[in-house]
């Protein structure tokens, strides 16, 4: 009588423990998928190798030597939110792609919420993806170095010779990581340097100064606070590092580029001098200004819990200014704002005019790569070639359907309806990477941006920062721990919430050192100096 | 040898029963035991180019980041503390509410109360975070608008760490009370009326009946629920903490739990190896805890133990 009970209870134990173990690890779920798919990246890498080794074997259908005999569905991943009419555009694209490449494509969007987390998961979970957006701000360099993408050098001439010829050689060279091409760069020349964004109509109304540097910006915000007490002078959200600190340093501290990680400081004019910005007097001065802004009520006291985008409060008129945004996005914000409030005006003052030089966007800034997990790298590249170099594909995915989403008048793009009624705005698919200067249509208001660009062209200097590919494997554990310290101890400082800046900085530095700050900074410095030496940057 | 033969004997004697059990066993094997192979990730360096078992073995290096910042103890204590509060207060309140409800005579009122208590369970944490932000934000929150209306000093809740200990517990209870209450309510319905009638004849008043009949009868349900809850004690309530606190580093000292810490650390350095190592740490800790508590309970009263 006793034995069966014991067996059953033993079985039950095993089951329960199993449930507990599998339930316990929240991150375990991710690994589950990984365990079953872990083998696929290496398996899928093989077809491309074998194919590139014997190009003659396959090429039968199309002149470029691309094998299109088998129908494939391509998985295309872009960041941000999908436009409302994406389904219609996708159907149109697929009609063409079906007959021309024997392929269909599925456009996937991550939404901006936690996009970085999703992006990392997409790349490491082994899920088959054929095309994915890359940029310096999505850590293209680090991922390429770690081997997340397929090298394109041998695929390009075979699958997309037109695309290879279309992108200038110096751009192909610029995106190389350890001598190999991992992404297809965008060729449109633009500036994504920041600039002050502010309500020009309010500035005129109250006769406030034009923000040109931190001091005049503060004077502007003071004026807004005084005259429009119900308005929040500065738009800000919980990501105070990216939206406040990094931008502040760009205009005030002559940073080489950015964002610079681990509290490192490097100045554009002295690129071989690496110092610790964290703990420096420079930082103290910056933080004191930010703390003053916080105390004056320029942005919410609970800013660390604000989840709005930076632009939304400007568009709706809740906030008056942004510390920094790039010319293109400024233009977008202005368009959106004026579509519902035609009498409001938005002003822009580029940081480069104050700093004395402008760095045009680095080719790494916008691109598309083929992840290791892709099952159809050649077809993906052929499809991407169409997106860039074929006017029909390109304009359809950039502007929507002519006559339905937009019209062209005097060579200018004109949206039909407004941003809420139109299901596909200009560059509605966030198609920054496949912009083709020859096919680009601009809104009339973009003339302003072009003027800014022309102005910046006069003072352009090369971007010496973005080509640097950091390899953080040697200090990975410290890096993760440091990230934690930054969130807990530096973010409140960045948000101006710490009453005593000196003490706050001291605590934060102690914690950072405990987490291994010195090792991380040393490691970064060493790699940076190797990079500058190798590229003759002085 | 004897137990082995016993097992085979048992198998053949109750083969129909075991056959019926088979789907469950297979389910757990596939969903809970097979994925455990992934634990090996905790000891390797993740590489995009190779499969799991070809990756470089690095021993305990992936675990390093957990104690690198020196707050592992605090995190563990926070996680344990909050969960203990959730379990103890949650069950006590659920029992109390269940008893009160079961004593109610008005049927429609009983149903209505039960539904109202249950509703918060369906509210997602994302919505909860919006509600909480609008209650407590400094400039325009409900609380401060009220205080200003009464000519009192506004309170900066989002920059005051200690306030979040009761707040988080409160919101957890508010959200989960209805659910656990229903379980106890079901247990109470299962108690035979004869006990109560007998007690009534013996002259026991309502408090005596509750204390001497209902409460002891709920003990088994409580112990089972307790052991289940302990199994996931290291898991925390990620959604709750992540949504309510988010990026607010000011509050981390009192509100950071293992799950949120790991999530944040790896948001930047996304590394399968380190993520797994954190999961392994949580699991092992939870496992030890369940075994210990179950052992203690078995010592006290064998019938109540899970196994």
Automatic annotation (TrEMBL), chain A:
Positions of the UniProt region annotated as Disordered: 26-66
Keyword Signal: yes
Positions of the DUF3502 domain: 465-532
Signal peptide segment: 1-19
InterPro entries recorded: Bact_solute-bd_prot1, DUF3502, SBP
Compositionally skewed regions (Low complexity) per UniProt: 34-65
Key words of the record: Signal
Protein's UniProt name: Extracellular solute-binding protein
Automatic annotation (TrEMBL), chain B:
Protein name, as recorded: Sugar ABC transporter permease
Topology versus the membrane: Multi-pass membrane protein
Keywords: Cell membrane, Membrane, Transmembrane, Transmembrane helix, Transport
Transmembrane segments annotated in the record for this chain: 21-43, 82-104, 116-136, 162-189, 210-234, 279-297
Any Pfam family the entry gives: BPD_transp_1
Family: Belongs to the binding-protein-dependent transport system permease family.
Domain ABC transmembrane type-1: residue ranges: 76-293
Cellular component GO terms held in the UniProt record: plasma membrane
InterPro entries named in the record: ABC_transporter_permease, MetI-like, MetI-like_sf
Keyword Cell membrane among UniProt keywords: yes
Subcellular location: Cell membrane
PROSITE patterns: ABC_TM1
Superkingdom per UniProt: Bacteria
GO-annotated biological processes: transmembrane transport
